[in-house]
Amino acid sequence: MANETPSESSATSSQNKQPKQPKPTQNAKPEKAATGGGAGDKVKSAKDLKKEKRAAAVAARAVSDVPGSNEAGIGGRPSLNTQNSGIDGGRKGSTFGQTVQQHHQSGSSSGAGPSHSGAGIPKRPNNYSEPSALSLSTIQQNLFFSHLPKQEFPDTSAALTTGKLHPIIIKLGVLMSSGQLRGSNARTMGMMSAFREVIRDYECPDQAVLWKDLPIYLSPMIAWLETCRPKGVGGGNAIRWLKSEINRLGEQGDRSEAEQKDYLVEAIGLYLRDRIEFADKVIADNAKEKIRNGDTVVTYARSSVVERVLLEAHRDMKASDPGAGFNVVVVDSRPLLEGQQSLEALSSAGISCTYILLPLLSSILSQADLVLLGGSALHSDGALYSRSGTAIVSMLAKEHRVPVVACVETYKFGEKVVLDGVSTNELGKVDQLLINPNNPKSNIQTSKINNLTPLHLVYDVTPPSLITAVCTEIGFIPPSSVPTVLGKASNVV
Fold first, then answer.
1. Phi, psi dihedral angles at 429 (to 5 degrees)
2. Where is this region: Disordered (predicted)?
3. Which helix (H) or strand (E) holds 298?
């Protein structure tokens, strides 16, 4: 305009000229202002940009929680559609299953179009199906017991081709895995007898020391037996004792190879005699004093030491009074049914026996006077680790106020503390578990049934509060005295 003054024209020209933008730093990149970049706007710092992004995310999350809002929030996160639920508090919303179903339907009908945030709703494949409750429980059950070892038949051909395993060790592993050699005492005696034969046939290499080379020679055999069947607490204690005896050879001065082998063979024989055979005899002498004329004794499954207690008590009672006697109730359970062998041994000796299964135990305990149990191990906290079902027998006996005596050798005492039967246990074979003894044609086949996971836990843990006393070769002790016995035994063995 012609009437403008020089001062006004200079002011107008200064407004039209943009000020120079400062150079961006390395940590923050400048962004264009939302107002169009006027003369009075300043470049926002990185701290202001973070605050704005955080505020926008909070606002978008609040909007997505409102019923009827967008199904995709910040970052393409889908929210549940609540079309059936009213905004007012007087109407109840739809159930969770209906809401999820509506969300799936709305997602499939809307396609993969972008939401307001620019991200699409993820689509599931056409063959997808929601897992049922049974399949979820089966998956959880498999994961819950997946760490436990399983009883599988060993690969004997691969064991023979390695050349590191003695043939008697392979035979022992087959007997243990097939169940022909069952029981903690039987497996420990078989394992130590096999190692005795291995030591007899062992020949120390040239330029080698026997007490250093022999443990290396025995290590693959011990590992292979562990794959066939876990050795347990008693077997582990026996192997540690054997290794300590081998190391002791280095402290006994110069001996010939034959003398060292003879020493180990004799030591193994003394261990089996003192810690198992003699210990069982002393336990039988102590425990039979608790059985009186006319008593009813309850035992579960099969235990070699409990069988010896009952047989010697019957023999001594008949020797003093031919008319005296006592009754034995043999409680058994599937799938092993070990009590049948115990029943045959006791009844053939002339003992009056009753055979029942575990579900009928509560009807018999009201007439019982004593419960005798065996054990595979006795842990440091006094918990009894024995055949699965022992904890139920002990619990019912305490409810009926029947004393429970566990017959356990001290070589089975363990230093661990076990709180449940899941962390350390063993998965048994399930073939006999799915067999119907009355109708073999109706046997269950797992390959034809979905959502079926047969489970057979071999052992369980009985708390020390359910055990009245523990009968050992050193006498009757409470379960809480296991650490004391372990401290004394460590100086002897």
1. -75, 140
2. 1-131
3. strand 296-300
- 306 close to 281: Cβ distance less than 8 angstroms: no
- Specify the 3-state DSSP secondary structure of 405: strand
Q: Across-strand partners of 357?
A: 332
What lies within 8 Å, CB to CB, of 66 at 6+ separation is: none
387/277 same-domain check: no
Could you report how far apart the first and last alpha carbons of the chain are, in Å?
116
pLDDT, tens only, 22-53: 444 444 444 444 444 444 445 667 778 878 88
- According to DSSP, residue 17 is labeled S
CATH number of the domain to which 240 belongs: 1.20.120
- Indicate the pTM of the whole model: 0.69
φ, ψ of residue 300 to 5 degrees: the values are -120, 140
Say if residue 294's pLDDT is above 70. yes
Same domain, 327 and 442: yes
Domain membership of residue 304 as a residue range: 291-492
Of 363, 348, 369, nearest in space to 298 by CA: 369
Clarify whether residues 424 and 455 are in a common domain. Answer: yes
CB-based contact 200:168 (threshold 8 Å):
no
Structure tokens at 121: 């709703």
Give me the pLDDT at residue 29, please.
45
Q: State both tokens at 71.
A: 């199904």
Residues 6+ away with beta carbon under 8 Å from 45: 28
310 and 180 within one domain? no
How many folded domains does the chain comprise?
Answer: 2
